[in-house]
Amino acid sequence: MATQKSSGEPKRVTVDEASALVLEVRCIKPYERNPRRSKNPEYDRIKDSIRANGLDQPLVVTQRPQATDYIVHAGGNTRLLVLKELLDETGHARFARVPCLFRPWRRESDVLLAHLRENDLRGNLTFIDKARALQDARQLLGEEMGLKTVSIRRLEVELSKVGYRISRSSICRMVYAVETLLELIPQALFSASYATIALFCAGVIIIQLFIRIPMPSIEEKEGHKRPARFVLTRPVFLVAVLCAMIAYGTMNLLMTATPLAMNHSGMAFGDTAIVIQWHIVGMFAPSFFTGSLIHRFGVLKIMFIGALALVGCALVALNGQLYAHFLFGLVLLGIGWNFLYIGGTTLLTEVYLPAEKGVIQGINEFMVFSATAFTALSSGYLHHTLGWQTLNRYTIPLVCFAGCIIVLLGWQLRYRRAQVA
User: Fold this and answer.
1) 36-40, 49-53, 135-139: least confidently modelled range
2) Helix (H, G, I), strand (E, B), or coil: what is residue 5?
3) Whole-angstrom distance between the N-terminal and C-terminal Cα of the chain?
4) How many domains does the chain have?
5) Which terminus of the chain has fewer Cβ atoms in its 10 Å neighbourhood, N or C?
6) Which residues contact 351 (CB under 8 A, 6 or more apart)?
């Protein structure tokens, strides 16, 4: 058995037998068809063990024809992700290079079944993940054997040839689960969420039936109105509306793309849910004291702090794509939206007379939620074409523009007060 070391860029391995290698961890990629679709429940325990003791067993890797990078061959995806995370967190050299056992490439289905066999032996693979992997293996075997479809009997035989024994009845149940039940699972999983939303909406309607909203006053209905052009071209109006649009648009763009980015980074749905939950806390928890802060420090200062928080969110995202980056960045995103958007809507109240309120508020709402609709519709496409970090990078100039016009408006108002004095 040959023993080789690898450093720098990965190279093609031409040996036809198992070989011991020492590889740069960044040269190894997780297997993209890994049967485990959710986060390993033992992830934290494995991370603590590797942090304390290093890697106990070498990773088994292989290399596709004509490829220069390596992929995990039989299990070990969790250990690889842990090593990369520890390397990003600590920069320690002992996580940068790992001992590996190289297996020559045979065919795609062999690698998938090796992962399935390894995960199944550990006994912590969910039924639906196992069924989906088996269906993927069935499709790959059909392509490799030149068959349009592989029968259940033939699949059982082929699986036994590679040492993965499973009864025909179990295969039938798994095929039925994937082909028939899988489409219904997402609906069943989220049905309670949609039912809860419906109950909340019904509760809001019932509460509104008992609210007595005062009728517009005489001044609001018949008071003095200035030409709309005069109001819409005032610097205070422009800053208020533009900042509210940027706050809502930036928040909506990044929040909508976050689940896509976390899924692309291999994170579990539960992790994504927690990040979004804390983002919501960041959005609305400051509302208990945002008004007091505006009253004490001034609306423009709070708006500027909100713009700084939005830039901070983008900078955190550019610093990495670990769970902590998403969590901290989305909390900053929520706080930035709260300060900048509430500040903008507060500033807007300083620009109109009572009789102008309905028109000016309507224009503001139309512009803000048009920006929100546009970012909601384009977020997925932009994430797909640009990527998560580039998407964050492009928001920085927009938010910096908001910060600049806030500063300019502050200088203008201060100059006018000085002239009056």
Assistant:
1) 36-40
2) strand
3) 89
4) 3
5) C
6) 231, 234, 236, 237, 240, 360
